[in-house]
Design goal:
- The protein has helices at 2-10, 17-39, 53-59, 73-83, 89-104, 115-132, 137-141, 143-179, 185-193, 263-266, 288-291; strands spanning 201-205, 215-219, 222-231, 237-247, 250-253, 259-260, 275-280.
- It is of the alpha+beta class.
- The protein has two domains: 2-141; 174-291, no CATH class.
- A hairpin with a 5-residue loop joins strand 5 (250-253) and strand 6 (259-260).
- Mean pLDDT is 87; it is low at 288-294.
Length: 294
């Protein structure tokens, strides 16, 4: 309800962009807290500043009418990014940063991103959180304003596609210049210094820019694990295998030096999944020793 109040203040026709953006950024934070609290209220309870009282309220152990303190916006963005993919915590952080500068800083605060781009990027994040509170854009802003929001969402999808196409074309041009010995100066130096990022988990794939087999995607964050135990006919333990589900952090290509580490672009890159399976080390998991009876 608080998020709805703030977003409708933001969309009032008599407000300038900076004030509208302030209320919209506040609404996004409330929406993030709403989505997290639906999973578990403890996810938004401040566990430090009030000696754990908010955690006790969240758990239902003490009266909910007592003062309840929530976590800061940066914590909300971090937790939403991990829990509600493809929510972009960095993008939300930029939105919150503008709000903080608007209140506490010397600058206006919302001048880093043009208004025409700010709203499409804002609604791309808000729509994800709305789905996790089982609400639609129309539920959030009202039917009379739903069409305008859909226009912003369409603009963001188009902008995202153009950014991807520009990144692919830049990689193709760079490879062509290098192969024809027409690359010089700073760009050649950067090309020669290029190194692949080393991930704990990775998989090869065809590069969407140069179509070589030297592309790969990888990541570090394990989203889930599955342990399987194999036994022989006499019911003696023989082996354990662990299959991990890993979040894709980026794509890179050793041939054309294409790097895509923006999560919004990763969502639309052909041949690059947002998560993938990898083999884990059984020794890293608690139940390994239980089965290691040799």
């Amino acid at each position: 309800m608080k998020a709805r109040l703030f977003i409708n203040r933001a969309l009032d026709a008599d407000r300038d962009f900076e004030e509208s953006a302030f209320w919209a950024a506040s609404a996004l934070e409330m929406l993030g807290k709403s989505a997290l609290s639906r999973v578990n209220p403890a996810l938004i309870a401040n566990a430090v500043d009030d000696d754990g009282a908010s955690l006790l309220v969240a758990s239902g152990l003490i009266d909910a009418s007592k003062r309840f303190v929530t976590v800061q916006a940066k914590t909300v963005w971090s937790r939403c990014a991990r829990a509600f993919r493809p929510f972009n915590g960095k993008e939300a952080g930029l939105i919150a940063e503008g709000r903080n500068e608007y209140i506490h800083g010397a600058r206006v605060g919302f001048d880093a991103i043009p208004e025409s781009a700010w709203w499409p990027r804002y609604w791309a994040q808000a729509e994800i959180l709305l789905s996790h509170v089982e609400r639609t854009v129309g539920d959030f802003v009202g039917p009379s304003r739903e069409g305008a929001v859909e226009t912003y969402l369409a603009a963001n999808r188009e902008h995202r596609q153009k950014r991807l196409e520009a990144a692919l074309e830049s990689a193709r041009v760079g490879l062509r210049l290098f192969r024809t010995d027409n690359m010089s100066g700073r760009r050649l130096a950067e090309w020669n210094l290029f190194t692949l990022q080393q991930w704990e988990y990775s998989q090869p794939t065809e590069c969407p820019a140069c179509e070589s087999e030297l592309g790969e995607f990888g990541g570090e964050e394990v989203l889930d694990s599955r342990t399987e135990h194999y036994v022989d006919d006499d019911d003696f333990w023989t082996s354990v295998s662990v299959t991990l589900t890993v979040a894709t952090a980026a794509f890179q290509c050793a041939n054309c030096h294409l790097v895509i580490d923006d999560y919004e672009l990763l969502q639309i890159v052909e041949g690059v999944p947002l998560e993938f399976e990898a083999e884990g080390d059984p020794a890293d998991y608690e139940d390994y020793e239980e089965y290691n009876n040799e």
